[in-house]
Amino acid sequence: MSTEVVAVSAVSAEQLQSPSAPAQQIAVEKVNLLGMSRPQMEKFFEDMGEKKFRAGQVMKWIHQFFVTDFAQMTNISGKLREKLEKICEIKAPEVVHKNYSKDGTRKWVFRVGDGEGSLVETVLIPAEHRSGLRRTLCISSQVGCALDCSFCSTGKQGFQRDLSQAEIIGQLWMANYSYMEDVPVLERERSVTNVVMMGMGEPLLNYDAVLNSMRTMLDDFAYGMSKRRVTLSTSGVVPKIDQMVKDIDVALAISLHAPNDELRNELVPINKKYPLEQLIAACQRYIAKDGNESSRKHVTIEYVMLDGVNDHPEHAQQMIRLLKNLPSKINLIPFNPFPHAPYGRSSRNRIISFQKTLSDAGFVCTIRQTRGDDIDAACGQLVGQVADRTRRAEQWKKKVAQQNEILRSQG
Ligand code: SF4
């Protein structure tokens, strides 16, 4: 939220109505409407003394027409637009770096605070699919991550803070807007077809903000995405998987990466708290019993291929035993090395033979294509590069200032 001095007689929606509020210039934190789910926005409008259906209208302008200026919301009365202008804003996080690959992959680094490292990244990957072109957006949920998986560049940056709803939905908003910037407002469309909550951070450790953001993704007044096209990926926060099953129906992916506890404790340390037996049981509880929930017919298993670490034939056999009672699709991910990474990428032959073992056992097993190689970086690495450049630029500025100071003092 930003702070602006505006001539209003209130600091909140309720106070805006109050005739006794002092009419004077006061500092007001504008409320950012971007991240609000529909129930939250309806309450906001009701508290302001407005009809709650206004929330749906405003949400459509924000999330379907990518409008940030209340003056462009033509089906809303001038009086209400003026009121909104005074106390609200629609503000996506600031883009500090963007990179569009030749193959259609797009990456953004967003600044989400004042600190040097307050950066998160978002990646959009296009792919042809039998149902048409898919544009899948990988969204971050935290600045850094506390879970410190040993193969992960983000984990090495430590944890700073959770992202707000506006910062999470802002990534989806900006990715869509990047295709629509030059299109007249009423002709704008949503371009992102799929979302995976698989960027920086563990989404289930920022539960409420991620849940409300996913609700906005599914909401017909916002992005109207199908529940099969919104996937939450977790490293295995078991109690929160159970909670999520009660709260929302979306697809689930597990960052597994190891087929036994000993290796997983090393690669994904949260496994020490919620070992494989508990994790697999939670996934089984997630699978819809009545078969009606199309998003919950299987779990996606993510498995990063680390040379000589988790890619032996015996590991593939252990996977078969581990997953035998869990409807699952397995996605093998060739490791994307980053500076000082303690691992290397498994050879192509190793990955293919691992896939064959699993496929022969009846699993649907795919190998993730590496995309956007000309701009590529492992998840979290791009942020590291941008932070490094920012740090170097700041150090350079300081050095120049110091030299100028010395020259001045020397007369
Ligand atoms: S893999 Fe995911 S959960 Fe593990 S440290 Fe990286 S961002 Fe966090």
Describe this structure in words.
The chain has about 400 residues and is of the alpha/beta class. The protein has 2 domains: about 5-90, DNA polymerase, domain 1; about 95-405, TIM Barrel (Alpha-Beta Barrel), CATH 3.20.20.70. Helix content is about 35%, strand content about 20%. The chain contains 13 helices and 16 strands. It has helices spanning about 15, 40-45, 55-65, 80-85, 155, 165-180, 205-220, 240-245, 260-265, 275-285, 315-320, 350-360, 380-410, and strands at about 5, 25-30, 30, 90, 95-100, 105-110, 120-130, 130-140, 140-145, 160, 195, 230-235, 250-255, 300-305, 330-335, 365. The protein has a 10-stranded mixed sheet with strand order 5-6-7-8-11-12-13-14-15-16, with helices on both faces. Strands 1-2 form a two-stranded antiparallel ribbon. The protein has a two-stranded parallel ribbon with strand order 3-4. α6 (about 165-180) runs parallel beside α7, α8 (about 240-245) runs parallel beside α10 (about 275-285) and α11 (about 315-320) runs parallel beside α12. The longest helix has 29 residues, at about 380-410. Mean pLDDT is about 85; it is low at about 1-25. Iron/sulfur cluster binds near residues 145, 148, 152, 154 and 255. It is an enzyme of class 2 (transferase). Keywords: 4Fe-4S, Cytoplasm, Disulfide bond, Iron, Iron-sulfur, Metal-binding, Methyltransferase, rRNA processing, S-adenosyl-L-methionine, Transferase, tRNA processing. Its EC number is 2.1.1.192. It is found in: Cytoplasm.
